[in-house]
Amino acid sequence: MDELSEFLIDPVRYEFMQRALIALALVSVVSAVVGAFVVARGMAFIGDALAHASFAGVAAAFTLGTSIYYGAMAGAIATALAITFVSRQARVQFDTAIGILFVGAFSLGIVIISAQDVYTVDLFSFVFGNVLGVGWNDVWIIAAMGAGVVLVVALFYKELLYTAYDPSMAAAIGIPVALVQYGLLALIGVATVVALKAVGIVLVVAMLVTPPATAGLFVRRLPAIMALAAALAMASSVVGLYVSYHAGTASGASIVLVATALFVAGLVVSPRRGLLGYWLASRAAEAASARPG
Questions:
Q1: Secondary structure of 98-126 in the HEC alphabet?
Q2: For the chain, what is the radius of gyration of the CA atoms?
Q3: Which of 80, 196, 208, 260 falls between 20 and 30 A from 3, CA-CA?
Q4: Whether the Cβ atoms of residue 142 and residue 131 lie closer than 8 Å to each other
Q5: How many CB atoms within 10 Å of residue 134?
Q6: Surface-to-core class of residue 8, CB atoms within 10 Å of its CB (0-12 exposed, 13-18 middle, 19+ buried)
């Protein structure tokens, strides 16, 4: 019992672990709220694209000596709006516009950084994540941006919901679909920036997609998906952070692997879409067909 208590209590004695847990809780909520729309629209690639595209803003902000968060947000939002504009104006496929612009923006960031005399660990933590390096200033910034995202979703929930599931119906009842789509991509851009410091550009898409996808295996309504996804993301964050602390592994990658493991487990046991549910339904169908008369 003492060993178990030590296992659970020892990490949270350190302030850097406390900051990391708070930051991850905030990231979990924001990622779940926005990620539910990402999964509903089938836009998983956009999270990865905007995370990479934000690196141009990060690099520019670092070079100019301004806030890296503001640079990341500007890069992500600008790319999100540009993707929608190019897709509509040039009439190319949405994923084609994503592929063109996110690679261009990420390459711009690399060019900007390669022109500098020094590389910094802080800058490249945005690529690979460093939640254990989160300071209180980072926590407050994440909280402020996250609160803004959740507030916007709450205010325009109906418009976002209709546009995500049925754009034609949304347009028919007077919702400005194009404007809402621009807004949704901007929200995704801000959400990626919120998660960047915690899990990094490489893994941020997992926080946006994996917990909501797992929640979708068990519940159908969007608010329920958001709530369950937030709980799953928090659980993944806590378990992954403890694994990282005790095993000495990368924190961001550990968190994502736990989230992935939860998805695999859900895929097996889900009564709605899981393998177990499919097997039980098959057995029931066989039993029904075998009954006489």
A1: HHHHHHHHHHHHHHHHHCCCCCCHHHHHH
A2: 21
A3: 260
A4: no
A5: 23
A6: exposed
Q: For residue 91, is it left (φ>0), alpha (ψ between -120 and 50) or beta?
A: left
Residues 225-283: tens digit of each pLDDT: 999 999 999 999 999 888 888 888 888 888 889 999 999 998 888 877 667 666 666 66
Query: What is the DSSP code (8-state) at residue 131?
Result: G
Q: Read off the DSSP letter of residue 166.
A: -
Distance CA 16, CA 134 (A): 7
Between helix 2-9 and helix 222-247 the angle, nearest 10°, is: 110
How many Å apart are CA 188 and CA 87, to the nearest integer? 17
Q: DSSP of 3-22, one letter per residue?
A: HHHHHHHTGGGSHHHHHHHH
Residue position matching structure tokens 């393998």: 275
Cβ–Cβ under 8 Å, residues 209 and 45: no
What's the rounded Cα separation, in Å, for the pair 6 and 17? 15
**Contact present, 79 and 105 (Cβ < 8 Å):** yes
Q: Is the pTM of this model over 0.70?
A: yes
Name the residue among 161, 174, 159, 60 with its Cα closest to residue 115. 60
pLDDT tens string 58-98:
888 888 878 777 888 888 888 888 887 887 776 667 778 77
C-beta separation of 110 from 185 below 8 A: no
